[in-house]
Amino acid sequence: MPMNKAKLFSILLAALFTFNLTACASDASDDIVTETGTTVSETTTELSDADSRRLVSDDLETVDFGGREFNILSRTNFTYEFDAEQTGDIVDDAVYNRNRTVEERFNVDIITHAYGEGNMANVLEVSDKSILAGDDAYQLISAYTYLAATGSTNGNYMNWYEMPHINFDKPWWAKGFIEAASIHDTVFIATGDLSLLYNEVTLAMLFNKELADELQIDNLYETVRDGEWTFDKLIEYSALAANDLNGDGNMDQNDRWGLGINTYTHIDCFLYAFEVPVVEKNSEGIPEMVINSEKMISVLDKVYSFLIDSGDVFVYEHPTDSFEPGMFESGKGLFMTTWLSNCANLREMDADFGIIPYPKWDESQEHYSTYYLDRTSSFLVPVIADVEFVGIITEAMAAESYKQVIPAFYETALLTKFTRDNESQEMIELILSNVKFDFGNIYTHTIAGGGSGPGHLLRLCILNKNKDFASVYASNEAKFQSNLDKLSEKFIEE
């Protein structure tokens, strides 16, 4: 995905998800009697979202740090989250102004250091060496979430709950993620508005509006609103759409499909959409494996039948895309799984498309739920850091992201119209309000001892064409449980 598109689309997503404050608004005037007995008229003025955000205090006292450097280590591809020049682009300018605001208030110099290429560049390789050498080269580490989780428990990184000035009750922190990644009062990784990727990579479904109309499918937005967008509906509508267009008896990229899905995280998302927990914390707050359940077995059976047996789904063995290039754009699919920022790549698509959540398991499920991709930046603080300094500057940067950057994103998204209709914007808000976080997903590589873990079992069963979940789980259970126990001990020892 071109970098400018990723940045621009983060705009709408972050604005919609980042806990909008509701400003008091009234058209009426209320008479107030002052202490002197004078009657005055007070009119409450409606505040914009940006103005409301600016009123949220970060509760930080201004400290003069004498020009001290605040060094952020980031993956090369995503340094734009922390560093930008004034270019006239509203997003770049907002990031630039956020940094200048913090720098001028606290007399610091914010510097971003890039490392590696690609999403999974392991910046902890660099930060670990720096910490062990005691050189205090970096004050904040921004890393790929799975690698951040795995590397965070090696004793080199701070417990965020012990960081002064960090307030996870503030709207600029992703409280759900932080609670899921915690055991008791210990958490080594955190994320929120300081990561522009945080909302961009949340998973959803797109649908081709013209094809839906042609097939006389009910208004999908209304189906979602009525709570009737279920897995059975997806299966039913996909069967209507699938068609061997050229009549050669072989369904391929030249034919029309009900759904396009990739064989990686997009399959994983069914676990979270159907609210199948991987790990849950017991009454003592200790995580336990719970994925080997009757519901998980039912989910695998039905997902397998749909993706493998039905012949209605284009299952694409690709780490990011759900169709081969151009297929969805040319009407070769009714539905497509994707992360939200990918909508930016469809701006030139002639047919209108809409955005809806992954379906519910059935109508008895209360919420539509989804999952975020691990490419989100998660943050760590070296144990050798000056925690007073790091806490103040990190909290200030996160707060100013909420106040300055997110409103700029929202404005740009509206101007560039990445969504085709108001209903899609409504759907995005719905999607982002129900993102599921699971300790077993965040730490899935750690629990696996490297490679695919319990959060990937649905995907692995589909890829290996194995519907016997009980046996697959049994072959991994001892390893998973042993690694989970060791991982829990690291938190408790903290």
In percent, how helical is the residue content?
25-40%
Q: Major sheet: size, sense and barrel closure?
A: 5 strands, mixed
Give the terminus-to-terminus CA distance: 40 Å
Strand order of the largest sheet: 10-7-11-6-12
Strand content: 5-15%
Please tell me how large the radius of gyration is.
24 Å
Specify the number of helices: 18
Bulk shape: globular
Structural class: alpha/beta
Outline of this structure?
The protein has 18 helices and 13 strands. The protein is α/β, with parallel strands linked by helices and 494 residues long.
Question: Can you tell me about this structure?
Answer:
With 494 residues, this protein is of the alpha/beta class. The chain is built from 18 helices and 13 strands. The strands form 4 sheets. The protein has a 5-stranded mixed beta sheet with strand order 10-7-11-6-12. A hairpin with a 5-residue loop joins β8 (279-281) and β9 (287-289). α1 packs across α14 (422-432). The longest helix is centred in the last third of the chain and has 30 residues, at 387-416.
